[in-house]
Design a protein that fits this description.
By secondary structure, the chain is of the alpha/beta class. 43% of the residues lie in helices and 15% in strands. It is built from nine helices and seven strands. The structure holds D-malate.
Length: 268
């Protein structure tokens, strides 16, 4: 592992009323090329007795990094180190898109950490040659045009049609989350994405309660991909989020949180 130093994170303490118990810890892993602030709508889960921790992956905290990650396992080692430092021994781990790829790496490296798993708008497969070629193009673009070029290219794919038409505030929010990412962090993440392992065979080994969430209009990881994951993970549940594209937690936060809260209340 190439050392990163401890990750910075959002850390919302559980809000517990008199006579109520701490329900546990929820760890949320962000998408590419955003940062932990994408999870702000989900910090409300703290009202239901859950501590919510959302790390900025290496380089995505706006401060740059000493050592770029060389693989998804480097991101996973950073998260393990953070949870150990926070004395979190078990958590429900959720990841959206790249965060889901990272959750697979965490499961491979440290299944002891998991009480449950949330896979949102993600896929187990590694990149096809065609996607790798597109990533080469994005790599060139981030080098030439910085984060703004990446935002121009990605925002139309990240958000559903309806969100782009009707919610300029969300379009702006996602754009500003991308612009907060340094070109170096984005470039390093592209290389990690291109070389990540295929996790398809791992799905059958997942033994914790699992929720698969997908935006109905997700063009990057469509509902059929989520349904196939549900079929492959023993006992998994599938929930489609109407009116959302790939960034379902930002596009439909209430529906996303309702599905999350139901899962946490009944399956964990
Ligand atoms: C993400 O949202 O994390 C990315 O779309 C993932 C990817 O490009 O594979």
């Amino acid at each position: 592992m190439a050392a990163a130093g401890l990750l910075r994170c959002l850390d919302a303490p559980a809000r517990i009323g008199p006579g109520e118990d701490l329900r546990g810890t929820l760890v949320l892993l962000h998408a590419f090329p955003l940062n932990a602030h994408m999870w702000e709508p989900q910090l409300a889960i703290a009202d239901r007795g859950w501590r919510v921790i959302a790390p900025h992956l290496r380089g995505f905290d706006g401060g740059g990094f000493r050592t770029p990650p060389s693989s998804m396992d480097d991101y996973a080692d950073d998260v393990i180190e953070l949870l150990d430092a926070l004395h979190v021994t078990q958590a429900v781990v959720g990841g959206l898109s790249m965060g889901g790829y990272l959750a697979f790496a965490l499961w491979r490296l440290a299944p002891r950490l998991f009480r449950g798993l949330i896979l949102a708008d993600t896929r187990p497969q590694s990149d096809t040659p065609q996607i790798r070629q597109q990533r080469e193009g994005l790599l060139a673009r981030v080098q030439d045009e910085g984060a703004a070029g990446v935002a121009d290219e990605m925002v139309p794919h990240l958000l559903g049609d309806r969100t782009r038409r009707e919610r300029p505030d969300i379009v702006q929010r996602v754009r500003s989350l991308i612009l907060a990412s340094s070109p170096a962090a984005i470039a390093a993440a592209i290389r990690v994405l291109m070389t990540r392992d295929d996790s398809t065979a791992l799905l059958a080994s997942i033994t914790v309660p699992t929720l698969v969430l997908v935006g109905s209009d997700d063009a990057i990881t469509p509902p059929s991909v989520g349904q196939a994951m549900r079929d492959a993970v023993p006992g998994a549940e599938f929930v489609m989020i109407p009116g959302a594209g790939h960034l379902s937690n930002i596009e439909q936060p209430q529906r996303f949180n309702d599905a999350l809260a139901r899962f946490l209340a009944h399956r964990i």
